[in-house]
Amino acid sequence: MSLFRNFSQRLAVVLRSGAPSTVKSPIVPDKYDVMPRQTAEHLIHQVKPVEISADKIGCDGGNGPLGHPMVYINLDNAEPQACGYCGIRFVKKTRSSSQADDRSDRNESTRL
């Protein structure tokens, strides 16, 4: 009961005084710069498209349980096709680049 003793008298004194009952401290400016320098779209366009020799590719995010649902992407066009979840772009290998890769693979296999 000591908490409520003379409560009404103390309340009356506080209400009569013109001083604010609470003191607000000034807002401290942030110490950290959390604003991104570049957008996610700009960053993902800096990554080169992954070249695939097949007509279709499945993308699951690449992180196992931390990835995203499996998405199958058709690579019929010569343009890069992006995954709808992670934004990684895939492009079908051109005939000249795939032949050059085959030649380099043969050269590497003969060296072994």
TrEMBL record:
Residues 93-112 are annotated as: Disordered. Gene3D superfamilies: q5lls5 like domains (2.60.260.40). Pfam families: zf-CHCC. Residues 100-112 have a biased composition (Basic and acidic residues). One of its GO terms (cellular component) is mitochondrion. Transmembrane segments: none annotated. GO terms for biological process: mitochondrial electron transport, NADH to ubiquinone. Residues 55-90 form the Zinc finger CHCC-type domain. InterPro entries: Znf_CHCC. PANTHER family: NADH DEHYDROGENASE [UBIQUINONE] IRON-SULFUR PROTEIN 6, MITOCHONDRIAL (PTHR13156:SF0), NADH-UBIQUINONE OXIDOREDUCTASE 13 KD-A SUBUNIT (PTHR13156). This is Putative NADH dehydrogenase. It comes from Heterostelium pallidum (strain ATCC 26659 / Pp 5 / PN500) (Cellular slime mold).
